[in-house]
Design a protein that fits this description.
4 strands, elongated, transmembrane helix, Rhodopsin domain-containing protein, Rhodopsin_dom_fungi
């Protein structure tokens, strides 16, 4: 008699109880939203703004790992997730444990690691400030550490590795309590980095001279990371209950919230990069005035070239640099090289705002004459922008 005959000895009503359908539905729907958001991000960066960068490369790797995690989740649901553990045939249960192992490797380890590194590299576009960069690079290093630690933990749970789902190999495994503690450490690290990446840009964005609508939009999108924090906390609570769980397959909350945490994280990380496509629909201009602020990024670069000194000049230069990088991130502008020229363009950024030029001149005691010319065309619609030509007499 095969081992599958075990199903004939259970209560038929208990065997008929299953959560598999809605577990698959919820995870697949949320993952579809995350996947579409990521695809739109890649299209925006690669085609619309032509600014595909290293943060996008890491996001691609996170999405690929997410696909692997989703496949493992579907296999798990078809082999026992959502069913009572005592109604699952032994062969299917072993397949479930193997799928759970691969989901932990590609999703709990690498997918989260690649996602956090992508977010950090995106935030590096916000500022040139050394303190801000150091914090982000420290978070990247910390993410690499606990990602590798989690990977090693999953690999060394049992010796040989296949013993995790094949007891016939008579594996040597460490205790469930130790395994639970490793899982809690990984969950805590993910929660900490989620909070850090969702909080760091908020005061910086609010202090910039941008439309209030733009600031609220960016803060609201970045605050989506707090949803991932909530899911991470829920996951950690069910990891704590893992040791005493006797029917963990009927409500597999820990891997369920893990999958949702990754999907929400991808959505929150990709949404700010969609500004070039959503800007018109949401009427999001990157500056306080659509004409005066059209060349804000170029203005910030040009101001850095003026020979200035004093506290006022330093504040002006810092504000311009921060705003320039923020505009670059949400509009998808290309990077500027050392010669202050746009890559792929022959334009030299000599246009600055008159009010900024006046502050610069007053700070250094120089004489500045400015001539302005403007057209009613919105630069974000492809028209001519209002600029100010500045001449500095020393």
């Amino acid at each position: 008699m095969s081992s599958d005959s075990r199903t004939f000895y259970v209560d038929p009503e208990r065997a008929a109880e299953s959560n598999a359908a809605w577990l698959i539905a919820v995870v697949c729907v949320v993952w579809s939203l995350a996947f579409v958001t990521a695809l739109v991000r890649f299209y925006t960066r690669a085609v619309v703004s032509r600014s595909f960068g290293r943060d996008d490369v890491f996001m691609v790797m996170a999405v690929l790992c997410g696909i692997g995690g989703l496949a493992s989740w579907v296999v798990g649901c078809h082999n026992g997730y959502g069913n009572h553990i005592d109604t699952i045939p032994p062969t299917r249960f072993l397949t479930l444990i193997e799928a759970q192992f691969y989901q932990s490797i590609v999703e709990a380890s690498f997918a989260f690691g690649f996602l956090k590194i992508s977010i950090a590299l995106s935030l590096l576009r916000l500022s040139r400030g050394s303190w801000y960069n150091r914090i982000l690079w420290a978070l990247i290093g910390f993410t690499c550490f606990y990602t590798i630690f989690a990977f090693i933990t999953f690999l060394t749970y049992c010796k040989p590795i296949a013993g995790q789902w094949n007891p016939a190999l008579r594996p040597k495994c460490y205790s469930r309590v130790t395994y639970r503690n490793f899982g809690l450490f990984n969950a805590a690290c993910n929660i900490f980095t989620d909070i850090s990446f969702a909080t760091l840009p908020v005061p910086l964005i609010w202090s910039l001279q941008l439309q209030r609508r733009v600031r609220i939009y960016l803060i609201a999108i970045l605050s989506g990371g707090y949803c991932a924090v909530g899911l991470g906390i829920a996951r950690a609570l069910f990891i704590i209950a893992y040791v005493h769980e006797t029917d963990g397959t009927f409500y597999p909350w820990a891997p369920f919230f893990q999958a949702l945490q990754l999907d929400i994280g991808i959505i929150a990380a990709c949404a700010p990069t969609l500004r070039p496509l959503l800007g018109r629909a949401l009427k999001l201009s990157t500056t306080l005035d659509p004409y005066r602020g059209a060349n804000y990024y170029r203005a910030g670069k040009a101001l850095d070239r003026l020979p200035l000194s004093g506290d006022t000049a330093r504040r002006c230069r810092r504000q311009s640099a921060v705003s320039g990088h923020l505009v670059e991130m949400i509009r998808g502008d290309k990077q500027w090289d050392a010669a202050n020229r746009r890559k792929g363009s022959v334009f030299t950024p000599i246009a600055v705002h008159a009010e900024h030029a006046r502050v610069k001149g007053e700070a250094s005691g120089e004489s500045i004459e400015a001539e302005t010319a403007s057209t009613p065309n919105d630069p974000e619609m492809g028209g001519i922008v209002k600029t100010t030509e500045v001449r500095v007499d020393t």
